[in-house]
Structures are given as C-alpha cells and as structure tokens.
Design goal:
12 helices, single chain, elongated
C-alpha cells in the first residue's frame, strides 16, 4: 500500500509539472514579441480571475506593442478601477493616450506616474522621453529640453533619446547644448542620421 501511495504521489507531481510547463507564460510571450498570443493568454487569465492585475498589466503592454492603443486605454482604465494605485497601469495608460494623440491627458497621466513611481522604476526614463515628445508636438521646446534631458540622464545609452534631446535644444535656440546632445547620439550610434544632420545644422549656426 505504501509503495502504491508513493507511486501515485510521484505520478501526480509529474503530471502537475508537465501541465505547468504546457501552459504558456504571457509575460515570456510578451518579452519575445509574440503580442497576439500574450493578449490571448492574458484574456483567459482575466476571465478566470477578473482581479488579476498582473495579467491586466501584461495585457495592456501587449496591446500597446501590438498598436491596439484604444483597446489598451480601455483595458488599463478598467484595471485601474480595481487597482488605482498600480504605477504600471498609470504608465501604460499614459502611453496608450500618447499614441492616440491625446496629449494633455497623456501629460497628466505621465505626471501622475512619475509622482507615484519609485525613483528607480523601470519606465521612469520612458515617461520623461514621452513627455519630451509631447512638448515637441506642442512647440514647447524648453519644456521638451527639460524632459529629454531628464530622460537621457536616467538612461544615458539610448541614442534616439539623445537625438531628440538635441532637436529640442536646437528648436529652443540652445545650440551649444544641442551640439553636445547630437554628438553624444553619434558616439552611441554613428549611423544615427537625424543626429548627423542635426549636428551639421547647429555647427553651421555656431560658426
């Protein structure tokens, strides 16, 4: 009897392990760029547990990366009814609004995220970058300079951010600092065409 019990326990544990391995991980799918499948898995998880905030977050990240911005806004707003203080939902909602051109709403939500997120939060730099892009859209170049400068200070190895920082400074008339930003972008990526053209423009201005 004892032997049978041990065999049953071993079979059960193996079966559970195999089942767990066969169930796709939505976060892994998201990180691997398989956004449609990640969305599908998250929807199943939320149907089973409507208060599963982790699933909501991965769902909304995947929707944004899959360019389903209106749906991402809807689902992240829905999730914030359950967990209004979750900073992940604040940030992804702000992104969804940004990509739909809802500039003022996006600014408000990014500011809310920055005010509530830890200083070392993974998306702080992105939030400042997006704020900078919105201010460029609005022609508020000094505001854009401040936001982009904060973004590159937070994550100094992103050549695109340095390029856009240079552009904001150039448009604000701060040519020496624009030259510095464009040069940094080219140090990181010598094939960054926008940075090269920007560097040529501000160099000509400074002659």
């Amino acid at each position: 009897m004892k032997k049978n019990t041990l065999l049953f326990a071993l079979f059960f544990s193996l079966s559970v392990g195999l089942f767990a391995q066969s169930k796709p991980d939505a976060l892994v799918l998201y990180r691997n760029g398989n956004y449609p499948e990640a969305i599908k898995i998250c929807e199943q998880e939320i149907a089973a547990n409507p208060r599963n905030i982790d699933s909501y977050c991965v769902l909304c990240w995947s929707l944004v990366r899959n360019r389903q911005y209106a749906e991402a806004e809807l689902r992240s707003t829905e999730a914030r009814q359950i967990a209004p203080g979750d900073v992940r939902l604040m940030e992804v909602l702000a992104e969804a609004k940004y990509y739909q051109g809802k500039n003022n709403e996006a600014i408000e939500m990014f500011r809310t995220y920055i005010a509530n997120a830890p200083a070392n939060a993974a998306r702080i730099g992105n939030a400042y970058y997006y704020l900078g892009e919105i201010y460029i859209r609005q022609g508020k170049y000094q505001h854009a300079d401040i936001a982009m400068t904060t973004a590159v200070y937070t994550e100094p190895l992103v050549d695109l951010w340095w390029t856009r920082c240079g552009y904001a400074r150039e448009m604000a008339g701060s040519y020496p600092s624009a030259l510095e930003a464009y040069s940094k972008a080219l140090e990181l990526n010598s094939s960054q065409g926008d940075a090269a053209r920007g560097k040529e423009r501000v160099t000509a201005r400074l002659r």
